[in-house]
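Worked example 3. Consider a protein that binds glycine.
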Amino acid sequence: MRVLVIGSGGREHALAWKIAQSPLLTKLYCAPGNGGTANVAENVALDIIDHAAVIAFAKSQNVDFVVVGPDAQVVAGLGDDVRTAGITCFCPSKAAGQLEGSKSFTKALCDEFDIPTAAYARFEDEASALAYIYTQGAPIVIKADGLAAGKGVTVAMSVEEAEEAIIDCFSGAFGESGTAVVIEDFMEGEEVSLFVLCDGETLLPLTTAQDHKRAHDGDTGPNTGGMGAYSPAPVMSEEDFHFAMTRIVEPTAKGLAKRGTPYQGVLYAGLMLTDEGPKLVEYNARFGDPETQVMMMRMDSDLLPLLLATAKGALKGQHIVWKDAYALTVIMAAKGYPGSYEKGSEIRGVDRLDTDDLTVFHAGTKREGERLIANGGRVLNVTALGSSVKEAQGRAYQGVHAIDWPEGFARSDIGWRQAAREA
Ligand code: GLY
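Given these inputs, the predicted complex is written out as structure tokens:
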């Protein structure tokens, strides 16, 4: 089977790394890829915004299966266009992808199918949004309605912070995505991510994970795309898992099917574990980054047939085998991230690190001959296995310390909550 993975981050390196191990694979491309995907696939310099170019390449190379990684391509309907061209594709439809593309779409779905989530209101103008927060007070959550590259959500602990977030949104900080805001009640609890494959009808749970969105130790500093993650997340009990599947994920999949827009792909449910049980924080309509990196390290099963079965409506009867281990990933980012940062510095000592228990996934790198060059904000994902989160954490940080990259930084406490519970 000839496969094309779309994207260039750590998530796509992890997916390509896992797909490359499949006995079903005969050729793997990654577009545009990065310095790490180049080790397991042939990178193709395609502009992935240009759907016609992606399809023309796939046809010219007899690609059998396209796997789409990034949210922007899901929301733009790349999956629909690839399927229309007659190629099997792992990517929800544009209609179902609104779960991620529009916060108010998901909130309305929750209302319609009685899915537990925070109470909310939606506003299309600044004055009404401000009036609402003055009556509600803080803490309160302000979300740009559309996709905002992970930056459109503010958990405002004061009314002033909420005001600032609303003014930012309506002043164009998130472009079209900020022409409306969704304002939600603040939910108290610990956040966990649940990943479930859905073929339109059948659901097959993958696993749970927790990520670390803030830039600095102790969960402080600005929000980022994710500075580290671990899986599974033992904070989610069996009971919570059952509740989340039956009251959140199943009604979502059934609701979308009932509306005539079935969901085919991976459902990434961001959940808050509240005193009243899990509640939906948000949906993403694709694999998480960096959660995919830890999931792929833990997965024993062949990923490729699972993705194919999802895309073909054939998940019934499939099952997944996981390693009896925890995985933890530490993100190495360019100094300054998530603000402005330099590209172009050389990174040394990465290629000799990989073992059975440690893999360095690349996010923002490129190769210049033999040299590995930083080419983005989040640059490397040092990912390790262990019999506990603490053991995986120790192994991952040994890897981080062995990498010679003075222009980079990492948080030093990824996995802290679970490591403390294990102590
Ligand atoms: N881990 C956050 C995300 O993938 O959106």
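Take a moment to read the result before moving on. The longest helix spans residues 238-258. The longest strand covers residues 264-274.
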